[in-house]
C-alpha cells in the first residue's frame, strides 16, 4: 500500500471511529474530571495524563512535518504555526494551570486519547507538509481565509473561556463553582465551542480528509461532554440560568 492510500485509509478509519465514539459517549459519560467514577481500572494523576496523551501533537507532529517535501513553503509553515499555537498550550501550559491535586484519570482514557493523537498527528503533519499542495495562491482562496479566521476566533474563545474556569479555583479550592462572564452567559461549555470552531477552521484551511476527520472526532467527543456538563450544572446549581444552552448560543 502506498502512502497516499494509507493516508486515506487511516483518515476514513478516524471518521468511522468518530461515529462510534459519538454513539458510545451519548450513552456513557467519559469517566474523568467532574464525571470521574470507579470501575474503570487503574488511574494516574490527571496532570500527567493530560501531558502524555496530548504530547504526540508536538514530539511527533513537528518531525513528521519537517520531513515533508513542502515543509519550507509558506502556507505549510503557517499551518504548523497554527497547530503549535493550540498544542503547545494544551500540552505543556494547560496541565500546569489546572487544579488537579488528588484528581486521577483512568489509564484507559489516557491510552485511547494517546492512540488517537498518534494517528491524528501523523496524518495532519504528513498531509500539510508532504501530501498536500499549497501554492502561494492558496492564501487568497476563500476556504483558506475562512479557515484561518475560524481557527483564530476559536482559539481566542477557547483561551478566554479556560481562563474564566481556571480563575474559579484561583484560591486553591478544588470544588466546582458556577462560571459566569464571557460566552458562559449563553452556553455551559464555550471552551468546547472554541475548540470545535478551531478545528472546523483547520479542516477548511487544510482542505484535507485528515482535517475533516479531526474536526469530526473533536465533535464526537465534545458534543456529548458538553451535554453531560450542562446537565451536571443544572443538577448541581439550583440557580443555574434556565436560558443558558449547552454548546451553541440560543440553539442547543
Please tell me about this protein's structure.
The chain is an all-alpha fold and 252 residues long. The protein has one domain (3-236). It has helices spanning 3-25, 46-54, 56-59, 61-66, 74-97, 107-131, 142-167, 190-206, 209-236, and strands spanning 43-45, 104-106. It has a two-stranded antiparallel sheet. The mean pLDDT is 94.
List descriptors.
globular, 9 helices, two-stranded antiparallel ribbon, 2% strand, 252 residues, mainly alpha, single chain
> If you compute it from the alpha carbons, what radius of gyration comes out, rounded to the nearest whole angstrom?
19 Å
How many structural domains? 1
Q: How far apart are the termini?
A: 43 Å
Question: What is the residue-mean pLDDT, rounded to a whole number?
Answer: 94
**How is the biggest beta sheet arranged?**
2 strands, antiparallel
**Helix/strand order, N-terminal first:** HEHHHHEHHHH
The number of helices is: 9
Weakly predicted, low-confidence segments:
none
The best one-word shape is globular
Identify the strand order in the major beta sheet. 1-2
Question: In a few lines, what is going on in this structure?
Answer:
By secondary structure, the protein is an all-alpha fold. It has nine helices and two strands. The protein has one domain (3-236).
Task: Indicate the topology.
Blueprint: H1 3-25, E1 43-45, H2 46-54, H3 56-59, H4 61-66, H5 74-97, E2 104-106, H6 107-131, H7 142-167, H8 190-206, H9 209-236
Antiparallel strand pairs: 1-2
Helix pairs in contact: 1-6, 1-9, 2-5, 2-6, 5-7, 6-9, 7-8, 8-9
Amino acid at each position: 500500500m502506498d502512502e497516499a492510500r494509507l493516508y486515506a485509509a487511516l483518515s476514513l478509519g478516524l471518521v468511522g471511529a468518530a461515529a462510534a465514539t459519538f454513539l458510545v459517549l451519548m450513552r456513557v459519560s467519559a469517566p474523568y474530571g467532574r464525571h470521574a467514577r470507579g470501575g474503570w481500572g487503574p488511574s494516574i494523576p490527571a496532570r500527567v495524563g493530560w501531558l502524555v496523551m496530548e504530547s504526540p501533537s508536538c514530539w511527533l507532529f513537528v518531525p513528521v512535518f519537517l520531513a515533508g517535501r513542502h515543509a519550507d513553503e509558506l502556507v505549510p509553515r503557517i499551518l504548523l504555526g497554527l497547530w503549535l499555537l493550540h498544542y503547545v498550550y494544551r500540552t505543556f501550559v494547560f496541565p500546569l494551570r489546572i487544579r488537579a491535586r488528588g484528581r486521577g484519570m483512568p489509564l484507559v482514557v489516557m491510552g485511547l486519547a494517546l492512540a488517537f493523537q498518534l494517528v491524528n498527528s501523523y496524518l495532519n503533519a504528513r498531509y500539510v507538509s508532504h501530501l498536500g499542495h499549497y501554492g502561494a495562491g492558496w492564501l487568497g482562496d476563500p476556504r483558506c481565509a475562512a479557515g484561518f479566521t475560524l481557527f483564530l476566533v476559536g482559539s481566542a474563545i477557547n483561551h478566554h473561556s479556560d481562563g474564566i474556569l481556571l480563575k474559579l479555583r484561583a484560591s486553591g479550592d478544588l470544588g466546582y463553582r458556577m462560571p459566569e462572564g464571557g460566552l458562559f452567559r449563553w452556553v455551559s461549555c464555550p471552551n468546547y465551542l472554541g475548540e470545535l470552531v478551531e478545528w472546523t477552521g483547520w479542516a477548511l484551511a487544510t482542505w484535507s480528509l485528515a482535517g475533516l476527520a479531526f474536526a469530526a472526532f473533536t465533535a464526537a467527543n465534545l458534543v456529548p461532554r458538553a451535554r453531560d456538563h450542562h446537565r451536571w450544572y443544572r443538577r448541581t446549581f439550583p440557580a443555574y440560568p434556565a436560558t443558558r444552552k449547552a454548546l451553541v448560543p440560543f440553539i442547543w
